[in-house]
Amino acid sequence: MFNPITRSHLLKKLDGCRKVPLTIILAPAGSGKTTLLNQWQDANETLNVARLDLEIRDKAPMAFFRRFVDEVKKHSPMLDISTFNVFSNDLSCPASMLCDALMLALDSVDDELFIVLDDFQCADSPLVQQVMASLINQLPSNIHLVLASRNYPGFSLSRLKLSDALLQIEGEDLRINDQQLNLLNESHGGKTLSKPCLTRILELTEGWAVGVRIALLACKHSGESALDSFTGTLPELVDYFGYVVLNGLPASVRSLLVQSAVFEYFDVDLWEAVLGSNASGPVMNKLLAQGVFIVRTEPCNQSSREFYRYHGLLHDFLAVRLASEQTVTDIQKLHRKAADAWLVKNQMTQVIYHASRAGDNDFYLALLKDVCRSCLAKGRLSEVIHFLSEMSDEALSSEQELFEAMVFALIFSRRFNQAQYYLDYWQNLRAGNKSNHAKNRFSAVLEFLSLSLNVFLNDEDYVSADRLGQIARSTTQKDVRAFSLVIVAYYQLQRGRLEDALNTATKAKVILSHLGVPYLASYADLIIALCDRYMGRGMMAVNYISALYQGIEAQTEQPSWVNIATGMIVVYYERNQLDASQAMCERLLPKVNYACATEVVATVYLSLARLLFIKGDVQKSVRLLDRLDRILILGKYPRFKGQVAQELMRQALVQGSLDGAERIAESYDLHNFYQQTAWSEVQDYSEGRERFGLAISYLFQLQGKHTQANALLNDIHRVADTQQVKARALIAECNRIVVLYKNNAKEVAVNLLKRQLDLLGLEVFSRCIFDEAPGLGEVFACAERLNIVHLPGFYKEYFNDVFPSQVEVNNDISLSLLTKKEREIYELLVAGLSNSKISDQLSIALSTTKWHLKNIYAKLGVDNRTSAIVIARKVV
């Protein structure tokens, strides 16, 4: 026998009944409503409580009213019994007369009174509901009504809700939680259960009190393994559901309820479409009103409609009854109707669920192909993988279209190992098949998918773009054929063939838009924007992505939104709208773990890492970059690896951390990479090589190797400029300008800056240029002081955080306290030299350098190297 546990939070909530005229406890049978009322009444012995535990006999209105008056009379000795002769017989009376009589009884009660009606669903006659509705609207302030029921009452609660005159406790509130489950287990002497067992009990029972108790008893008698067979078919639950749910239902209603077990989820429309009865809607609405173990679910696939499901144990019970009362053929017909009905609602998961159970393999495969086409077009790749994972490898390989869809979805979900598994399986199957037709049937498709995987898995492996496009035309899926153009454009982009990439991506965009495939078309949009950006047409890229985003801004659950929103990260960043860019990154971060393109993943992580660093959250920035590095292990990505290495080294340069830079160089083997690359002989552009090269140039700057940095940057600029990758060429040249400036060739540096401004215009100097060429703001400030460059006021205001008004460190009045030797050491410190390098440069002992630095920090009012460097960048 179970001892009831005390749930203090529920008792406290129920205490709120003192402040309102009506309290309703609404939950299915076995949820603990009566137990809660008993405990509340025991805890409040001083209160006046008139309680009626209603029964079937209270369905008769006059019987109910007589019991009601008898209970009230116990709390009003002065009550005139003759007033209530109206309740002494079973003749029908007008509701108004009955209400007036009850009001006279309540008005005779002087003290505060709580009238508790348990199992109020038993008093379901229309007359009782009408009288109670009228009574509640005019209750004296000292009277509080508490109803506990399995069903919603037959009167409206809207007015009470709007006036805060209603307290409602529902089934969700009464669910047993993990702590209460432990207490309940201890209360009946059960053995200590493992955490997984307790979790499983709550999953199976959904916290329903009776279900929890039966599960605990099963574990007590048979151990935790009892849960392996704990379903709604257990004798105890069959008896319970049979009595509570089916008992007393008309045969037609009972039949509809049992047939509805074919559904996982449902609404009124589905009942009417599948169960084929004009009564379906009213019956289901009645069941919903009664709350018979029906749970409102989250909308399916972002549908705006509400759906419902049965409590898991009740669904088990109904499914067994359905199997015993209907033939297999009849049940399969119901599933087929359900598949068609869900198709109308565009809920593909449910379509496939029912189609697979309809007993018609041709029907199932036809629907599966239609659903996979639709999901591929909309970018719902995880659904494609889920649907097709149910098929055996052999069955999947026998259906060319489905096999293509599976491998395509895996590649663009970055599940490269699984994609390779299927391609290998297919290759082995062809090799072992003696039929020439079987050998040749998928050969072109196999090669296309393999090359597509290679393009996304290996940044710099050579593949003929013409061959890729030629093979793609052999695939059976026109969407995939069109998207092959995007793959070719992406391949061309990787190798710096920007004009070719732009033309190919534009063609792909037109075709995919015409086919109505927004998700795949959004990849073409990204490539178009990247081409414009790299070709030095930054404003065109910004305007292009901004216009696209305006049309898709509200569609945040669509996969194509992820692609375009990724472009908006860059738009906001380039415009120096850092808060907006960071907010977009944070919205996207949870969505890109399985994004189709590594380009999207890398952009989100790298952008957020840079933004966090700018705002001073260095540790979180480094953690993000480390996480991205681990993601990139999935493939061979020198391009993205180079971006991570460049950002880490850029941060080290900004911080003046030579030790950190040396660790980064070792981690990415930058010394060997530099030595093994014939930089002066390189002709073809590779973004991976360029990014690693920039990282090495930052390292050289920290090491004071300005000559080597200048030469390396000159080679990077030459290749990017020759290949018309103008945005990257500008970054290399701006870094070279900074190196010259730091190496005391200030006049040469500012003149080179002037030349770039004359050639390209001020508009190309976006936020990215200043961040990836640390120190460029100082060169601008110097050029403006020398009247070589004139910056518009709005431009300086827009980029105020990268344009400090700076002068030569030696001439600043705030540094006048430094001696000549200290100024020399300070300049080398600002240039990024370590303590040992400063000592070598000035031919002084390391201890002497440290002594001078200690004095410098004291005079500047700082306590570390980084703070001292910051002063050099901010002084006026």
TrEMBL record:
Domain HTH luxR-type: 811-876
One Pfam family linked to the record: WHD_MalT
The keyword Transcription regulation appears for this protein: yes
CDD domains: LuxR_C_like
Keywords in alphabetical order: DNA-binding, Transcription, Transcription regulation
InterPro entries for this protein: P-loop_NTPase (IPR027417), Sig_transdc_resp-reg_C-effctor (IPR016032), TPR-like_helical_dom_sf (IPR011990), Tscrpt_reg_LuxR_C (IPR000792), WH-like_DNA-bd_sf (IPR036388), WHD_MalT (IPR059106)
Protein name: HTH luxR-type domain-containing protein
UniProt lineage: Bacteria, Pseudomonadati, Pseudomonadota, Gammaproteobacteria, Oceanospirillales
